Batch of 2 targets.
Target 1
Amino acid sequence: MKVGVLALQGAFREHAEALGALGAEAALVRRPEHLGGLDAIVLPGGESTTIDKLLDTSGLRAPLTGLLRGGLPLLATCAGLIVCAREIVDGRPDQRPLGVIDATVRRNGYGRQRESFEADLEVRALAGGPFRGVFIRAPVVERVGPAVEVLARHEGVPVLGREGPAWFASFHPELAGDLRVHEAFLHEVS
Ligand code: GLN
């Protein structure tokens, strides 16, 4: 499997390492020509406003949106989720989400005291006990559409889910030292 990792900014190396450890070929995506022949793509955490700008300067916005609308399997984490959501609350005014996951997210919604925290998550259909969720200035998922299947919640709020082949996490599964979320994603899309 060849899995693209959007490598404009953020935690793309950690995702590429996780995918490589699971036997997938991770391809860093920085320009439109890097989108060819992908079986899936990961949009990493980082800073969504920066990624938003770089999607335009790199020329990736339109071709990436087209592939995602066409059903290219997606794993979007943290800032990646903000970039892919239908609607952003508290985003930068000129930030334009791709709108490929039917969710409303509040950017930096966990607030100052809890900007970063860890929590054990009970993940539906993941064997082997709780998954350690690493939340770094994470978005709060305030609404999900009817087609979204929620796979884990933290204090009632969805933190992991999928809308068909588009998976999202508001935490950083690539920083947990636990490959089970990536493994489940790859298993589903292969
Ligand atoms: N707060 C960041 C943003 O707005 C997301 C943080 C992250 O990806 N860890 O993009």
Target 2
Amino acid sequence: MKTLDVALGERSYPIFIGGQLLGQSQLLAPYIRGRQVVIVSNETVAPLYLEQLRTTLSEYDIATVILPDGEQYKTLEYLNSIFDGLLEARCGRDVTLIALGGGVVGDMTGFAAASYQRGVNFIQIPTTLLAQVDSSVGGKTGVNHRLGKNMIGAFYQPQSVLIDTTVLATLDDRQLSAGIAEVIKYGLICDEPFFCWLEENMSSLLARDETALAYAIERSCRNKAAIVAQDEKEGGVRALLNLGHTFGHAIEAGMGYGKWLHGEAVAAGTCIAAELSRRQGYIDEATVTRIIVLTKAAHLPTQAPAELSLSCFNEWMAVDKKVQAGKLRLILLKGIGKALITADFDIALMNASIEACRESH
Ligand code: NAD
Ligand code: GLY
């Protein structure tokens, strides 16, 4: 097992990464405050792993909240069902919430923990690759709004993150690829050697080679923990983690939450960002090709859907969280491993890049 630290002063916490960790109560007990534990999961993950976790935590009073499965349920309405569960179980301020699931369950449970009785403890047990390499670390929590993705939420750090790589065995191939989109992101924004490693090892990752997966998870979490430690609330460098996300969120919301997976939308969005970086003169054609080749090798889309028009893109992008003083800011690339946030780009080139990276009808 590997242990990483997210260094945030008094809000610091460990990330445990390894196989078969779900059965190890000693990794959870130090982060549970009182006797009451509420496990939040969904109707897909609960039948697979809830009993095992219950057995591990048999010395606690456990209640469960089982959400429906899907991005379309990442809403205030379903967040409320977590509060219903907490109040029905008469949970006090010393309750500990445990998120057992992918990024949807993790983001919702974290936001519930941030707001229930003005803040209670929570633990992340991410069960998708995407959640293991990204969403469970760093304390971004929240829900979607019909007018914008992740628009309602809070920065709220967990007490610990338990990454059991064994649970990836039940994840389907499409979801595995979606997680790889966020893995590629770290290579692109800050870790060129990792990008080169991914170029060499993509087939091992897709084949679920345990060593390769464990390495990619650890390196991704290291990169994320380092960025979050520098900029917890996204005043600066943390925004780089949104590479491809402004375009990606437009795809996710514009197509209807749940149709395109988050990682798929980020992959296509990253290709648009790469194309715009080339048109701005920041990177050459060969670099864009490397990004597209790696994205395709991960079985991820490199183009946005044809049915999402340019004007739809522009409308969704106008509510991006990086808009400042009415001006959109984007993450662009100056090379592999070198990203910048900038409002200084040509809108016409951006629109041309979106058009160039849309599937043809
Ligand atoms: P998800 O939570 O919808 O999970 C994907 C699917 O896999 C679901 O059907 C789920 O039930 C299933 N699943 C989960 N674990 C499984 C397992 N071990 N075996 C079989 N099936 C399993 O999606 P996701 O990709 O994990 O997360 C996407 C969400 O995360 C989006 O809402 C996105 O906005 C958010 N996100 C948040 C952050 C952050 O920093 N907070 C970062 C990236 C993404
Ligand atoms: N996933 C982007 C962030 O955590 O900042």
